[in-house]
# Entry
Amino acid sequence: MSDAAVEVHDLVKTFDLGFLGALPGIGPLFSRLQLKGIAQRVEAVRGVSLRVEPGEIFGFLGPNGAGKTTTIKMLMGLIRPTSGTASILGRPLGDREARARLGFLPEHPYFYDYLKPIEFLDFYGRLFRIDARERRRRAEALVDRVGLRHAVNRPLRKFSKGMVQRIGIAQALINDPDLVVLDEPMSGLDPMGRKDVRDLIFALKEQGKTVFFSSHILQDVEALCDRVAIMARGRLRSIGPLHTLLGDEVERIDVSLANASPELVARLTPDGGEPRTLPGLWVFSLPGTTDVGPFIQGALAGGARLVSVVPHRRSLETLFVEAARDAEGDA
Amino acid sequence: MTQILAIALNTFREAIRNRLFAAMMLLTVGMLIVVAAFSSASLHEEVRLMKDMGLFLTSTLSVVIAIFVGVNLVYKEIERKTIYTVAPKPILRSQFLLGKFLGLAFTLAIQVVFLGAALAAVYGAVTSQAADTIYFILILLGWVVIDFVLVALGARPFEPGEHGDSSRPYDVARRALAVSAGAGLVAYTGLVLPTEMLQALFLVYVEVMIITAVALVFSSFSSPFLSGCLTFGVFVLGRFADRLADLNLAEPGEQLDPLLERVQTLVHGVAEVVPDLTLYNLTPYVVYGHPISGTYIVEATLYGATYAGLALVLAALMFSRRDFV
# Structure
């Protein structure tokens, strides 16, 4: 039995679209119908394999339509994989014991909007067979934890998008899970809300829990994740610790100078490339391999004042864009 | 079981808070009043006409409400994606579906009790027992007025928790009032209506349960509109199941055309598959005031329970294979 929090081997999901696709047992006949143009088949996830270690924060990235949500839905038992295997907390998909230790927030969640927060959390608590007193205690604590105390007497239909996201996170935590899967948890949140969710994810990690989350907001992923996986067009493009994926290599160095005369700028330009101008500043972008010592000495000797030297490494955004472009190239 | 009851309670709460449900109940009561008006206009046939039309309306509209609520319940969970947070919990899909069915069964029981009481009130009016009708109005008015007062004093709808708001005196009083009013309506119906009408009402409920289970089968794989049409089709065919089973297209002494023979075989096959809802139509007994034997009621109930059970198993099988995209 695997000791990974999540382990996925060669997971594939193919959708048979249209009314015919919904009919049970249509699978074998589908290829023939597809050839005749009656039906359509879409490969949403094509052979994804990954492993999430216990206690880590794992970021799952990819452009729209990459297959992230489909992969998450397969892990959550909402859709059945076409092929491949996966385990959650060392148990096969659908295992009830594993589900009892799992918390899940879907993308753009909708809830029973006629319920009030405590009623709502109590309902989910019952699904985990938590006793009444403990349900009440956890529901009250979670309402405070996600900052919804002020809305405790309001039905969910009167909640803003951000408040729905918060109560959604609360329901994912009602069973004090070992693994928390969050599909786009920052979606719809304002900067304060995003900070609260970031803090909450860190707090979960400190409690020894595993967090698996997908996001479009790369800034949050960079700030939070121990490891990331990038998907595009149904395939996994990169996976690993952020520092490994981004590497230590410096791509460029920005040198900012003040009090530089036009003559000095002209003299430095052949080496530093065309500088950018900011009020009172000249910013030279040098290739990452440049030895900046002689450049700076030359600038200082010419009467300029050195304001900053900033090395730029490969960003997650660059990695993300490259993965998306590679996928387009493969298609 | 806790989980099934949680789903059932939630389903009941959703159905009962649906305004359309209340609107359809009011519509039915309105139609019963129209029946009373028509009955009083018919010379010496008031009671017969009232029983006939009253039972027809109660059963047909109960089924229509059951179809409407039944086909929407599961579909709404998928369409509004509420199932996304329920399905990953440690609960089987079959338990989810059973919870939905039980919640709906409880909701529809309340509906049949309410409509039965309304029917009793109209019956009282038509049979010139005006006092009976006044009691019905008094129970309802008493409920509404006292509930209004309790809400004004600060009572709130059910909220869970051992030490939660549900233990506050006003909330307890509000729930006790609802239970008392329900018991009052049941007792009132039992006292006013003759035995055969009570038996007929009970079988209306069994019929409604069968139709609800059929609605769940269709809604486990298709849209509400299609499920509604298919369920209504089963209901209509079921109401004529005996005639379909006995259909004979051949003239006496004539050999049947092969095509017609196939049609006849198909119709007989359909009659075998659809529920025999003719068992639940007791109108002839009711109209002529003949009570039905207890054995018949038990057998019809067992048939209904078996059919609904099989339908639920089928619905659970289809639902467990479904992808929630």
